[in-house]
Amino acid sequence: MIARRSRPRRWVGAWALVALLLPRHASAGPDSAETIFEPIMEIDLRADGRRAWREQKHLLIMFTKEGCGPCERMKRQVFPDSEVERFFRARFVAYEVNILGDLPIVDVHGEALTEKQYARREAIWGTPAFYFFGEKGELVFKHTGALSKKKLMALGEFVAAGFYRP
Prior knowledge:
With 166 residues, this protein is α/β, with parallel strands linked by helices. 36% of the residues lie in helices and 20% in strands. Helix 4 packs parallel to helix 6 (149-160).
């Protein structure tokens, strides 16, 4: 048998360069899910809730965990959508909280906890779980389970429009 020596194709390198230069939003990969969520070093829900209301928005916490299939599916298929991103950024201050994480959180009442302790106290039993908070830091609506783009947008509209009010 004759072994052929393979030559690297020049166009492969060119495509790799193009891929590196594309903006992150051009790909609908898992990292682009961060677009609707605030960057996290620590979370102060009391201060962030006040900021949300000053900006006429609601506070949204999405509880997730590493290895959660439905969470990952939403990160790949729902959150990268530009319509979802625009809608949620305009109406919510949103955070992603890892139910097994150790980042510090100050809850809406000023108590300091880790992500894991906060999730345990809130009795998060499934992920993803969406918690929406009102003006006084009260939980106004919650939903557990993955959502399609259409259902997530409907849930966001329900909360943003204040339909949860009696």
